[in-house]
Amino acid sequence: MHIPFLTFAFAAGVALNPFLASCAENSKHHPLPSSFGVLLFPAFEALDVFGPLDALNLFSAQRQLKLSLIAPTLDPVSTSPRSAAMNPFNSTFSESILPTHTFDTAPPLDVLLIPGGIGTRSPDPFFDEHLAFIREQFPKVRYLITVCTGAFIAARSGVLDGRNATTNKHAWADAPVYGPKVKWIAHARWVVDGKVWSSAGVSAGIDAVLGWIAEVYGVDIAEGLTLDMEYERHADPSWDPFAEHYNITDHLPSL
Ligand SMILES: *[C@@H]1O[C@H](CO)[C@@H](O)[C@H](O)[C@H]1NC(C)=O
Ligand SMILES: *[C@@H]1O[C@H](CO)[C@@H](O)[C@H](O)[C@H]1NC(C)=O
Ligand SMILES: *[C@@H]1O[C@H](CO)[C@@H](O)[C@H](O)[C@H]1NC(C)=O
Question: How far does the signal peptide extend, from start to end residue (predicted)?
Protein backbone atom coordinates (compact mmCIF):
# COMPACT_ATOMS: atom_id res chain seq x y z
CA MET A 1 0.00 0.00 0.00
CA HIS A 2 1.90 3.05 -1.24
CA ILE A 3 -0.87 5.59 -0.92
CA PRO A 4 0.16 7.01 2.49
CA PHE A 5 3.60 7.71 1.05
CA LEU A 6 2.14 9.43 -1.99
CA THR A 7 -0.27 11.39 0.16
CA PHE A 8 2.66 12.54 2.24
CA ALA A 9 4.67 13.35 -0.86
CA PHE A 10 1.92 15.45 -2.37
CA ALA A 11 1.28 17.14 0.95
CA ALA A 12 4.99 17.98 1.01
CA GLY A 13 4.59 19.75 -2.31
CA VAL A 14 6.78 17.48 -4.41
CA ALA A 15 4.03 16.37 -6.76
CA LEU A 16 5.97 17.66 -9.74
CA ASN A 17 8.86 15.29 -9.13
CA PRO A 18 8.80 13.22 -12.33
CA PHE A 19 9.42 9.95 -10.51
CA LEU A 20 6.50 10.52 -8.16
CA ALA A 21 4.32 11.80 -10.96
CA SER A 22 4.93 8.62 -12.93
CA CYS A 23 3.96 6.58 -9.87
CA ALA A 24 0.77 8.52 -9.29
CA GLU A 25 -2.40 7.48 -11.05
CA ASN A 26 -3.80 10.31 -13.12
CA SER A 27 -2.23 13.33 -11.48
CA LYS A 28 -4.90 15.49 -13.16
CA HIS A 29 -7.16 14.47 -10.29
CA HIS A 30 -4.86 15.98 -7.63
CA PRO A 31 -5.46 17.17 -5.03
CA LEU A 32 -7.54 14.05 -4.60
CA PRO A 33 -11.22 14.69 -3.85
CA SER A 34 -12.23 14.32 -0.20
CA SER A 35 -15.55 16.14 0.24
CA PHE A 36 -18.64 14.29 -0.99
CA GLY A 37 -22.26 15.42 -0.99
CA VAL A 38 -25.36 13.38 -1.69
CA LEU A 39 -28.51 15.23 -2.77
CA LEU A 40 -31.56 13.75 -1.05
CA PHE A 41 -35.26 13.93 -1.93
CA PRO A 42 -38.31 11.86 -0.93
CA ALA A 43 -38.75 8.52 -2.69
CA PHE A 44 -35.10 8.17 -3.61
CA GLU A 45 -33.92 4.68 -4.58
CA ALA A 46 -32.08 3.10 -1.65
CA LEU A 47 -29.36 1.32 -3.64
CA ASP A 48 -28.64 4.42 -5.74
CA VAL A 49 -27.50 6.04 -2.50
CA PHE A 50 -26.14 3.14 -0.51
CA GLY A 51 -24.42 1.23 -3.32
CA PRO A 52 -21.98 4.03 -4.15
CA LEU A 53 -21.83 5.12 -0.51
CA ASP A 54 -20.86 1.67 0.70
CA ALA A 55 -17.87 1.61 -1.65
CA LEU A 56 -16.97 5.03 -0.28
CA ASN A 57 -17.70 3.96 3.32
CA LEU A 58 -15.07 1.25 2.94
CA PHE A 59 -12.72 3.66 1.18
CA SER A 60 -13.04 6.12 4.07
CA ALA A 61 -11.09 3.65 6.23
CA GLN A 62 -8.09 4.18 3.91
CA ARG A 63 -8.04 7.96 3.63
CA GLN A 64 -9.92 10.91 5.08
CA LEU A 65 -13.25 11.42 3.32
CA LYS A 66 -16.09 13.71 4.36
CA LEU A 67 -19.73 13.07 3.59
CA SER A 68 -22.60 15.55 3.57
CA LEU A 69 -26.17 14.35 3.15
CA ILE A 70 -27.98 17.36 1.75
CA ALA A 71 -31.69 18.20 1.65
CA PRO A 72 -33.87 21.31 1.96
CA THR A 73 -34.29 20.72 5.73
CA LEU A 74 -32.78 18.37 8.32
CA ASP A 75 -36.00 16.32 8.49
CA PRO A 76 -35.61 12.61 7.70
CA VAL A 77 -35.83 11.79 4.00
CA SER A 78 -37.63 8.55 3.17
CA THR A 79 -37.69 6.12 0.27
CA SER A 80 -41.47 5.98 0.74
CA PRO A 81 -43.51 6.90 -2.39
CA ARG A 82 -44.82 10.43 -2.29
CA SER A 83 -48.31 9.69 -3.56
CA ALA A 84 -50.89 6.95 -3.06
CA ALA A 85 -50.88 6.37 -6.82
CA MET A 86 -47.27 5.26 -6.55
CA ASN A 87 -48.11 2.87 -3.69
CA PRO A 88 -51.03 0.78 -5.01
CA PHE A 89 -50.70 -1.87 -2.29
CA ASN A 90 -50.50 0.62 0.58
CA SER A 91 -47.20 -0.85 1.64
CA THR A 92 -45.45 0.48 4.70
CA PHE A 93 -42.00 -0.42 3.49
CA SER A 94 -39.37 2.27 3.46
CA GLU A 95 -36.16 3.56 4.99
CA SER A 96 -35.18 7.08 6.01
CA ILE A 97 -31.93 8.99 6.06
CA LEU A 98 -31.12 11.92 8.30
CA PRO A 99 -29.58 14.79 6.31
CA THR A 100 -26.47 16.35 7.79
CA HIS A 101 -26.77 19.65 5.91
CA THR A 102 -29.33 21.86 4.23
CA PHE A 103 -28.80 23.65 0.93
CA ASP A 104 -27.77 26.71 2.97
CA THR A 105 -25.25 24.94 5.21
CA ALA A 106 -23.64 22.49 2.74
CA PRO A 107 -19.84 22.73 2.85
CA PRO A 108 -17.68 23.07 -0.28
CA LEU A 109 -17.95 19.81 -2.22
CA ASP A 110 -15.53 18.06 -4.53
CA VAL A 111 -18.15 15.54 -5.61
CA LEU A 112 -21.93 15.84 -5.81
CA LEU A 113 -23.83 12.57 -6.14
CA ILE A 114 -27.46 12.60 -7.29
CA PRO A 115 -29.40 9.38 -6.82
CA GLY A 116 -32.51 8.42 -8.74
CA GLY A 117 -35.75 6.76 -7.76
CA ILE A 118 -39.45 7.17 -8.26
CA GLY A 119 -39.28 10.56 -6.50
CA THR A 120 -37.50 12.00 -9.54
CA ARG A 121 -40.89 11.95 -11.29
CA SER A 122 -42.29 14.54 -8.89
CA PRO A 123 -43.65 17.64 -10.62
CA ASP A 124 -41.24 20.48 -11.28
CA PRO A 125 -42.17 22.96 -8.54
CA PHE A 126 -41.34 20.32 -5.94
CA PHE A 127 -37.73 20.25 -7.12
CA ASP A 128 -37.15 23.99 -7.57
CA GLU A 129 -34.79 24.23 -4.59
CA HIS A 130 -32.95 21.06 -5.58
CA LEU A 131 -32.52 22.31 -9.14
CA ALA A 132 -31.24 25.67 -7.92
CA PHE A 133 -28.74 23.88 -5.66
CA ILE A 134 -27.47 21.76 -8.58
CA ARG A 135 -27.08 24.86 -10.78
CA GLU A 136 -25.21 26.67 -8.02
CA GLN A 137 -22.94 23.70 -7.24
CA PHE A 138 -22.21 22.46 -10.74
CA PRO A 139 -19.54 25.05 -11.65
CA LYS A 140 -17.86 24.54 -8.25
CA VAL A 141 -17.77 20.75 -7.89
CA ARG A 142 -15.06 18.75 -9.61
CA TYR A 143 -17.31 15.77 -10.34
CA LEU A 144 -21.04 15.30 -10.69
CA ILE A 145 -22.08 11.67 -10.39
CA THR A 146 -25.67 10.74 -11.23
CA VAL A 147 -27.11 7.31 -10.57
CA CYS A 148 -30.09 5.94 -12.47
CA THR A 149 -32.85 8.53 -12.90
CA GLY A 150 -30.81 10.98 -10.84
CA ALA A 151 -29.78 12.05 -14.34
CA PHE A 152 -33.36 13.29 -14.84
CA ILE A 153 -32.97 15.75 -11.96
CA ALA A 154 -29.56 16.86 -13.22
CA ALA A 155 -31.04 17.21 -16.73
CA ARG A 156 -33.96 19.27 -15.42
CA SER A 157 -31.45 21.69 -13.87
CA GLY A 158 -29.91 22.21 -17.32
CA VAL A 159 -26.36 21.19 -16.37
CA LEU A 160 -26.41 18.19 -18.72
CA ASP A 161 -27.37 20.25 -21.78
CA GLY A 162 -25.16 19.34 -24.73
CA ARG A 163 -23.48 16.55 -22.81
CA ASN A 164 -23.46 12.79 -23.18
CA ALA A 165 -25.23 11.00 -20.37
CA THR A 166 -27.07 7.80 -19.59
CA THR A 167 -29.77 6.73 -17.17
CA ASN A 168 -32.06 3.84 -16.23
CA LYS A 169 -32.85 1.78 -19.32
CA HIS A 170 -36.40 0.87 -18.24
CA ALA A 171 -37.12 4.61 -17.95
CA TRP A 172 -35.41 5.35 -21.26
CA ALA A 173 -38.48 6.77 -23.04
CA ASP A 174 -38.67 9.58 -20.46
CA ALA A 175 -35.06 10.71 -20.82
CA PRO A 176 -35.73 13.26 -23.61
CA VAL A 177 -38.75 14.57 -21.68
CA TYR A 178 -36.52 15.61 -18.77
CA GLY A 179 -33.41 16.34 -20.83
CA PRO A 180 -34.35 17.38 -24.38
CA LYS A 181 -30.88 18.87 -24.95
CA VAL A 182 -28.94 15.91 -23.53
CA LYS A 183 -27.24 13.31 -25.74
CA TRP A 184 -28.62 10.19 -24.11
CA ILE A 185 -26.33 7.23 -24.78
CA ALA A 186 -28.36 4.00 -24.79
CA HIS A 187 -25.68 1.34 -24.62
CA ALA A 188 -23.67 2.17 -21.51
CA ARG A 189 -23.24 1.01 -17.94
CA TRP A 190 -22.02 4.54 -17.36
CA VAL A 191 -20.97 7.56 -19.42
CA VAL A 192 -18.24 10.11 -18.69
CA ASP A 193 -18.41 13.57 -20.23
CA GLY A 194 -15.96 16.00 -18.66
CA LYS A 195 -16.76 16.24 -14.96
CA VAL A 196 -20.08 14.42 -15.34
CA TRP A 197 -20.29 10.69 -14.63
CA SER A 198 -23.79 9.33 -15.22
CA SER A 199 -24.70 5.74 -14.56
CA ALA A 200 -27.45 3.47 -15.82
CA GLY A 201 -30.08 2.00 -13.50
CA VAL A 202 -29.78 1.33 -9.77
CA SER A 203 -26.94 -1.22 -9.39
CA ALA A 204 -24.98 0.52 -12.18
CA GLY A 205 -24.17 3.24 -9.66
CA ILE A 206 -21.87 0.79 -7.87
CA ASP A 207 -19.94 0.08 -11.06
CA ALA A 208 -19.82 3.75 -11.99
CA VAL A 209 -18.48 4.84 -8.61
CA LEU A 210 -15.92 2.00 -8.57
CA GLY A 211 -14.94 3.03 -12.13
CA TRP A 212 -14.65 6.61 -10.93
CA ILE A 213 -12.51 5.52 -7.96
CA ALA A 214 -10.30 3.54 -10.37
CA GLU A 215 -9.87 6.61 -12.58
CA VAL A 216 -9.29 9.13 -9.79
CA TYR A 217 -7.50 7.20 -7.02
CA GLY A 218 -6.15 4.21 -8.93
CA VAL A 219 -7.24 0.83 -10.23
CA ASP A 220 -5.61 -0.97 -7.31
CA ILE A 221 -7.80 0.95 -4.86
CA ALA A 222 -10.97 0.15 -6.82
CA GLU A 223 -10.02 -3.52 -7.09
CA GLY A 224 -9.36 -3.70 -3.35
CA LEU A 225 -12.74 -2.17 -2.51
CA THR A 226 -14.42 -4.53 -4.99
CA LEU A 227 -12.85 -7.48 -3.20
CA ASP A 228 -13.90 -6.10 0.20
CA MET A 229 -17.47 -5.88 -1.12
CA GLU A 230 -17.25 -9.44 -2.54
CA TYR A 231 -18.64 -7.84 -5.67
CA GLU A 232 -18.26 -8.75 -9.35
CA ARG A 233 -17.49 -5.37 -10.78
CA HIS A 234 -18.20 -4.46 -14.40
CA ALA A 235 -15.15 -2.37 -15.21
CA ASP A 236 -16.14 -1.85 -18.85
CA PRO A 237 -18.53 1.12 -19.18
CA SER A 238 -19.84 -0.34 -22.45
CA TRP A 239 -21.02 -3.55 -20.74
CA ASP A 240 -24.78 -3.20 -20.94
CA PRO A 241 -27.11 -6.15 -21.54
CA PHE A 242 -30.02 -3.98 -20.41
CA ALA A 243 -29.88 -1.77 -23.50
CA GLU A 244 -30.50 -4.93 -25.56
CA HIS A 245 -33.17 -6.16 -23.16
CA TYR A 246 -35.17 -2.95 -23.57
CA ASN A 247 -34.19 -2.58 -27.24
CA ILE A 248 -33.32 1.06 -26.87
CA THR A 249 -31.34 3.49 -29.02
CA ASP A 250 -29.67 6.84 -28.34
CA HIS A 251 -31.84 9.91 -27.87
CA LEU A 252 -29.99 12.75 -29.58
CA PRO A 253 -31.28 16.33 -29.42
CA SER A 254 -32.65 17.64 -32.70
CA LEU A 255 -30.51 20.63 -33.53
C1 LIG B 1 -55.15 1.04 -0.26
O2 LIG B 1 -55.81 2.10 0.42
C3 LIG B 1 -56.88 2.67 -0.35
C4 LIG B 1 -57.39 3.89 0.41
O5 LIG B 1 -57.65 3.57 1.75
C6 LIG B 1 -57.94 1.62 -0.59
O7 LIG B 1 -59.00 2.16 -1.37
C8 LIG B 1 -57.30 0.45 -1.32
O9 LIG B 1 -58.25 -0.60 -1.46
C10 LIG B 1 -56.11 -0.08 -0.58
N11 LIG B 1 -55.43 -1.08 -1.39
C12 LIG B 1 -55.00 -2.24 -0.90
C13 LIG B 1 -54.37 -3.18 -1.88
O14 LIG B 1 -55.07 -2.52 0.28
C1 LIG C 1 -20.39 11.52 -26.81
O2 LIG C 1 -20.82 10.29 -27.36
C3 LIG C 1 -20.51 10.15 -28.74
C4 LIG C 1 -21.17 8.87 -29.22
O5 LIG C 1 -20.81 7.78 -28.43
C6 LIG C 1 -18.99 10.15 -28.91
O7 LIG C 1 -18.66 10.05 -30.27
C8 LIG C 1 -18.43 11.45 -28.33
O9 LIG C 1 -17.02 11.42 -28.37
C10 LIG C 1 -18.88 11.64 -26.91
N11 LIG C 1 -18.47 12.97 -26.45
C12 LIG C 1 -17.89 13.15 -25.26
C13 LIG C 1 -17.54 14.57 -24.95
O14 LIG C 1 -17.64 12.25 -24.48
C1 LIG D 1 -36.23 -2.80 -31.61
O2 LIG D 1 -36.51 -1.46 -31.95
C3 LIG D 1 -36.49 -1.21 -33.37
C4 LIG D 1 -36.73 0.28 -33.56
O5 LIG D 1 -36.01 1.05 -32.68
C6 LIG D 1 -37.50 -2.05 -34.07
O7 LIG D 1 -37.38 -1.86 -35.48
C8 LIG D 1 -37.27 -3.52 -33.76
O9 LIG D 1 -38.32 -4.31 -34.31
C10 LIG D 1 -37.23 -3.73 -32.23
N11 LIG D 1 -36.86 -5.12 -31.94
C12 LIG D 1 -37.47 -5.83 -31.03
C13 LIG D 1 -36.97 -7.23 -30.83
O14 LIG D 1 -38.40 -5.40 -30.37
Answer: 1-16
pLDDT in tens, 124-161: 678 999 999 999 999 999 999 999 999 999 999 999 99
With a 6 Å cutoff on the Cβ, whether 245 touches ligand 3 is no
Percent of the chain with pLDDT over 90: 83
Q: Is residue 84 part of a domain?
A: no
Question: What's the domain range around 33?
Answer: 12-78+94-246
Rounded to the nearest 10 degrees, how much is the dihedral formed by the CA atoms of 200, 205, 210, 214? 50
CA distance 103 to 195: 21
pLDDT (0 to 100) of residue 1 = 43
Cis omega (within 30 of 0) for bond into 31: yes
Ligand nearest to the CA of 192: 2
**What number is the average pLDDT over the span 45-71?**
98
Res 26: pLDDT? 60
CA of 243, nearest ligand number: 3
Atom of ligand 2 nearest to the CA of 163: 13
6 is a domain residue: no
Q: Are 48 and 205 in contact (CB under 8 A)?
A: yes
Count of the separate structural domains present in the chain: 1
3-state secondary structure of 39: strand
Q: Which amino acid appears at position 101 of this protein?
A: H
Ligand 1 pocket mutation, candidates 90, 91, 93, criterion most atoms within 8 A of CB: 90
Alpha carbon 81 to its chain centroid, in Å, reads 21
- Provide the terminal-to-terminal Cα distance of the chain, rounded to the nearest Å: 50
Q: Compute, in angstroms, the gap from residue 181 CA to the centroid of ligand 2.
A: 14
Q: Is residue 253 part of a domain?
A: no
CATH number at residue 111: 3.40.50.880
Give the distance (Å) from ligand 2 centre to CA of residue 163.
Answer: 8
